[in-house]
């Protein structure tokens, strides 16, 4: 299994729009072969901010894929290319961590 932690930072004030676009694309991703989990998360409410907090412009996508090949196919899927094009003007940065269990 492959785990992905994708830290997506929006341009200031644009996180809600990015999350809307994520939600619109999510069903297509979940329908992909090998996709086990694909969901967006934000800092938990009620927890004091710390150096580890992501802040109001960032969200984290938690993904699980059956194999690396499935993740690689996801990266080049037409709906992902369209999503990237649609959101590029809203996005300030992305950090994609690809991990495997030990």
Automatic annotation (TrEMBL):
Record Gene3D superfamilies: 3.30.70.100
Keyword Oxidoreductase: yes
Keywords: Monooxygenase, Oxidoreductase
Record-level Gene Ontology MF annotations: monooxygenase activity
Domain spans labelled ABM: 2-99
One Pfam family in the UniProt entry: ABM
InterPro entries from the UniProt entry: ABM_dom, AI-2_Isomerase_LsrG, Dimeric_a/b-barrel
Gene Ontology CC: one annotated term: cytosol
Keyword Iron-sulfur attributed: no
UniProt-listed PANTHER family: ABM DOMAIN-CONTAINING PROTEIN (PTHR33336:SF3), QUINOL MONOOXYGENASE YGIN-RELATED (PTHR33336)
Protein's UniProt name: Antibiotic biosynthesis monooxygenase
Source taxonomy: Bacteria, Pseudomonadati, Pseudomonadota, Betaproteobacteria, Burkholderiales
